[in-house]
Recover the amino acids of this structure.
């Protein structure tokens, strides 16, 4: 199955470490311009003595780092959370250096230390935000103890004590603001990201269901049209088998006859599923008989496959009401597993049925080459097989969702792929006799 980039992937790129790194890169360059203008204004127009060489050295380091980050963002390497936190760390250290040279915690721009916390809270986890908040608070405390006072701004006597209390109060306010911003914005951003992902997932499922409905409409018309040519072919094959009962040709005609019968059964099943859906009624059958029937059909479709099934000892006493479409979904999963095994020169397909809590679980494991990723399988009509239609997994996923269950595809231990179809016991009305 071929995987293509979906709208969900695009939405995921709108937030997260990569988006935060891009935002920080442009804010960093803006900060370089603003800091340069501020130093020039204070030194040239306010005539306050500044350590301009040291200040411009810090601004220069930030400018070089910003340009380096812009180059890095153009590279194909993935941007990790650790890398973004390192970027924020560099920004915080440079800002702390500039504040250290201009009065420390008494500098009115000390509140800018809150900016990294706010930005990080929109894209990173609460734990990462806590680390960044601790770094900013530590920088604030250091600036309270060690700094280069601005000449002409020192206070003496009672005024100095009062201002010291003011700075201490600012520190407490900074810590409270850091906690509130980091905590609340992080929770709000996490909830927003969850809503965006869920909304996009619902959109993809709606598109999938529309595609399935369109296919179903066409299938109904095709079933009506195919009935006549199938009947004609069955008649001709039967006559040919009477004329050539033995030999290789006879075997081929017998196989052709069985495949034609399978086509007719599929058409009948298509009509039966529609009627069952309208009547809201399912077939009452034991789990053992249900799996035996699915195995027989798989053997008819893939006679070269060794079908291994594992059932509970009392599976014959487990009576279920098979909802419309469930049998077809199970056959799709088994047939896909058979094709994957055959493509890897294996003839084995392993199937197991178990009861896990309030769910009845079917596990289908192939012995194929495995899968690279499976987060979007079953949501789009795509197939890497030249003869595949790409709808088998989509139909199985839709059936599981309609029954309140779940379809999970993962790599199996020892190679191959395991498909796990779980449905609630209530949806199949399991009873044990």
């Amino acid at each position: 199955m071929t995987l293509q980039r979906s709208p969900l992937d695009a939405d995921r790129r709108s937030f997260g470490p990569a988006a935060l790194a891009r935002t920080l890169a442009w804010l960093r360059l803006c900060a370089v311009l603003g800091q340069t203008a501020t130093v020039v204004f204070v030194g040239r127009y306010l005539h306050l003595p500044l350590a301009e060489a040291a200040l411009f050295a810090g601004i220069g380091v930030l400018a070089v780092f910003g340009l380096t980050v812009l180059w890095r963002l153009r590279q194909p390497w993935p941007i990790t959370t650790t890398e973004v936190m390192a970027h924020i760390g560099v920004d915080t250290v440079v800002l702390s250096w500039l504040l250290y040279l201009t009065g420390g915690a008494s500098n009115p721009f000390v509140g800018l230390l809150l900016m990294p916390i706010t930005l990080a809270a929109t894209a990173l986890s609460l734990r990462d935000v806590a680390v960044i908040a601790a770094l900013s608070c530590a920088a604030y405390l250091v600036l309270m103890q060690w700094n280069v006072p601005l000449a002409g701004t020192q206070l003496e006597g009672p005024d100095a004590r009062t201002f010291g209390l003011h700075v201490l109060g600012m520190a407490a306010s900074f810590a409270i603001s850091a906690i509130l911003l980091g905590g609340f914005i992080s929770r709000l951003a996490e909830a927003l990201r969850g809503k965006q992902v869920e909304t996009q997932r619902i959109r993809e499922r709606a598109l999938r269901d529309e595609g399935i409905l369109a296919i179903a409409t066409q299938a109904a018309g095709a079933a009506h049209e195919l009935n006549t040519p199938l009947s004609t072919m069955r008649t001709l094959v039967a006559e040919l088998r009477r004329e050539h009962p033995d030999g290789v040709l006879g075997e081929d005609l017998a196989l052709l006859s069985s495949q034609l019968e399978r086509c007719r059964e599929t058409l009948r099943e298509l009509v039966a599923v529609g009627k069952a859906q309208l009547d809201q009624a399912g077939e009452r059958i034991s789990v053992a008989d249900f799996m035996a029937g699915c195995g027989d059909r798989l053997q008819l479709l893939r006679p070269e496959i060794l079908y291994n099934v594992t059932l509970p000892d009392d599976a014959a006493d487990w009576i279920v009401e098979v909802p419309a479409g469930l049998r077809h979904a199970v056959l799709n999963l088994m047939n896909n597993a058979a094709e994957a095994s055959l493509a890897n020169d294996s003839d084995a397909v392993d199937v197991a049925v178990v009861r896990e809590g309030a769910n009845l679980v079917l596990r289908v494991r192939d012995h194929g080459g495995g899968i690279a990723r499976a987060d979007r399988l079953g949501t789009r009509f795509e197939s890497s097989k030249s003869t595949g239609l790409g709808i088998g997994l989509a139909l199985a996923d839709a059936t599981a969702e309609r029954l309140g269950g779940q379809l999970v595809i993962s790599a199996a231990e020892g190679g191959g792929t395991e498909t796990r179809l779980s449905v609630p016991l209530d949806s199949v009305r399991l009873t044990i006799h």
In short: The longest strand covers residues 348-356.
